[in-house]
Amino acid sequence: MDAQRLPGAPARDGERIVAHVDMDCFYAACERLREPALDGEPLVVGMGFEPGETIGAVATASYEAREYGVESAMAISEALEKLPRKLDAVEDPALDVEEAGFYRPVDMAYYQSISEEVRTILHDNADVVREVSIDEAYLDVTDRVTWADVADWARELKATIASTVGVDASVGVAPTMSAAKVASDRDKPDGLVVVEPGEVRSFFDPLPIEDVHGVGPVTASELEALDIETAGDLAAADPDVLDDHFGDRGLEIRRYARGDDERDVTPRGKPKSLSRETAIGGQKEDSEYHRELLSTLGEAVANRASRKEAFYQTIGIKVVTPPFDINTRAHSLPGPVDDPALVQEVALDLYDAEFTDATVRKIGVRVSNLSFDDAEQANLTGWDDPSVPDVDDVEPIGEARSTGESPDLPLGQSRLTDF
To answer: Which residues of 373-391 are buried (b: 16+ CB within 10 A; e: fewer)?
Structure first.
């Protein structure tokens, strides 16, 4: 989808360029990666929900499910009244199968693994990244692009996420964090909105008051009682009136409505791990090809760690096998190192120990247990150091998980997972 350019002053370089990346219906998108036949179907992902039960709350509702009135945070029991389960509709002649949907429980470990793939792409495309949740982040790309080419940069970023990971992202670009976040939500799903310098105030003015950063439902209700219903109303409001009613927070949200936001995009602490992985076109049972990929990925992730001046003590691999079983294996070293050749060697040894005959959908390399101090790295005498446990003695840091049978299939229908 092309970036929407808002009318206003011409773009000018020298202004900060902030992008807000928000993954569309992320949990549902991840479930569709695992079960492609869910594409286009009403899909609800529930917290505290078990297949066949009515307890829990909606974590994510696909856009198709939202058309039936299902919303995030809604009780599963209420969601089921609006959108019955497919299997229930098959068994109950009073329900229409065509007006039913699919329900899945939250699988946070799986979603986190997909999120890590997205984060790798974000860090590759920006010097400063602030991750604020599993499915959204701010990027400062001031030193990477200009306002003249930022729309092309954003399109390429979205295309890379879609082709590499398989999920869609909406991106908003603006000179401030608050404007970028609002922009990313204006053209969902799969949207791209660029708000250039000089356009922020005109962009905000017609928006409902709830769209202003920091304005929740209660504050919005209190503002409406003061006849402040749009961001433009808030921007023009008497600051003394806002101060009397809301204190400093009232003045803060007024500044956001006026496009004034001096916050910098700052990373949240140091990363705990760094990884690189790639999807394999189709499914391949080709150990030499897999080993070549691992070697390349190992070099890339080690070089990335070196650029960040990070030492690592654990080296691991990720191997995704059909239908979508995630296998992670790792080896811990006696101390932190910065050694690209060792990363490649360990990754290959972990692969050779278990996966040479595997059919692989995706493969990756990770370094973790990172340290960023100037301490001297561990003095490893070699991979055969007796103080280092053999690969076969290392416990896997994660077990393969199987998707199992899909609980919501209509009777007589094959399971949805179809790779």
So the answer is: eeeeebeeeeeeeeebeeb
